[in-house]
Design brief:
Elements lengths: L3 H7 L6 H13 L9 H13 L10 E8 L14 H12 L3 H9 L2 E8 L16 E4 L17 H20 L4 E7 L3 H13 L3 H4 L8 H17 L6 H8 L2 H15 L4 E3 L2 H13 L7 E3 L6 H10 L15 H19 L3 H4 L5
Parallel strand pairs: 1-2, 1-4, 2-3, 4-5, 5-6
């Protein structure tokens, strides 16, 4: 019996070329010079292709899923932050006090927090803002193993994490979400993401490994060396799910499933920074039909994020120099997707406005 991830991949359908063409033609009849709304027009066409209708529906309600997991590679000194911070931040999400909570409230999005691989105890939410995000306990393992010395996950663990993500997407869509936003938390996860990206884009570790939480030059050199050891350990491997198992993370795997689940349901998925970029890279390498349903919310300052966007051909919606994660940049991009849909549905054409076009 197929798991949630495999079922999502099997359920993928092609975007509607007819709805895209109709929307493109309609945009050219609106009371504006052709193409003058720039990337908003591209977004509107993609939304129409996803929904199979023109004008496209406004992508709302919006749901953010923050997947949390720890990484054994922190033992190599790739970050100054202790592993316990992951659990502490999960508690902060549930109390409504993190950046993603603020930004989600700002755009009217809900937040769901999923413990898919936190290494330390996560306290039961009970204090904080009323109606704060719910914590879903779907822990596959207490973090990953050290990717510089061995596989991050077992085959069973990576499959389970993929299924967790796909199931969360299905749940949120069943509850009414019509736009999904990726979020993540995990001390050490930029190291794992860099390793995944280096292998699947065939780039050297130095090109795709960034400063993460703002590490100094010495620690960055350590981090690059660790990524180099990890990718040399699996030299020659190219299967995306196997690469994910070897050098990825539980929250990255869950994000792969989450993205696939949204795409299978023909719901737009807005990805965040470098962690989500690593996930979408795995997802698209495993099932290319996922890509038309994905929007790149922003361009992270992490070099691996730009490497992925270039590799798969995604154009970031905003570029604000962000590198926080949590879903912050993706959440900020959501109103622009909604604006694009509103423009197609509400703006007058030259004919309806009685304006003579050139």
């Amino acid at each position: 019996m197929a798991g949630s991830f495999d079922a999502a991949v099997a359920a993928l359908t092609a975007p509607s070329l007819e709805a895209a063409a109709t929307t493109r033609e309609h945009l050219d009849r609106l009371t504006k010079p052709p193409g003058s709304l720039g990337q908003l027009e591209t977004i509107a066409v993609q939304l129409a292709a996803i929904a199979g209708s023109s004008p496209p529906p406004v992508p709302a309600p919006v749901a953010v899923a923050v997947f949390a997991g720890d990484h054994g590679v922190v033992a190599q000194g790739v970050t100054p932050w202790p592993q316990e911070v992951t659990a502490q931040m999960v508690a902060n999400f549930c109390a409504g006090g993190a950046a993603i909570n603020v930004l989600a409230r700002h755009v009217g999005a809900s937040v769901l927090v999923i413990d898919v691989g936190v290494a330390t105890d996560v306290a039961d939410p009970g204090v904080g803002s009323p109606g704060g995000p719910q914590l879903v306990r779907s822990r596959v393992a207490n973090g990953t193993q050290d990717i510089s010395t061995g596989a991050a996950m077992t085959s069973a663990e990576v499959v389970e994490a993929l299924d967790v993500g796909a199931a969360v997407a299905a749940r949120l869509i069943d509850e009414g979400a019509r736009c999904l936003v990726t979020g993540d938390m995990g001390i050490g996860n930029t190291t794992a993401s860099a390793a995944v990206i280096a292998v699947l884009t065939d780039r050297p570790a130095q090109e795709v490994t960034g400063r993460g939480t703002g590490i100094d030059d010495h620690r960055l050199a350590v981090k690059i060396s660790v990524v180099e050891r990890a990718i040399s350990r699996i030299a020659g491997k190219r299967d995306p799910i196997d690469v994910l198992r070897e050098v990825g993370g539980l929250e990255i795997a869950a994000l792969v499933g989450f993205i696939a689940g949204g795409a299978a349901a023909r719901v737009p998925v807005v990805i965040d920074g470098v962690i989500a970029a690593a996930a979408v890279l795995v997802a698209v390498e495993a099932a290319p039909g996922i890509l038309p349903f994905v929007f790149a919310g922003h361009r992270s300052t992490e070099p691996g994020a730009s490497a992925v966007l270039s590799h798969v051909g995604l154009e970031p919606i905003i570029d604000l120099g962000l590198r926080l994660g949590e879903g912050s940049g993706a959440c900020l991009a959501v109103p622009l997707l909604q604006a694009a849909a509103h423009l197609v549905g509400e703006m007058a054409t030259f004919d309806s406005a009685g304006v003579t076009s050139k």
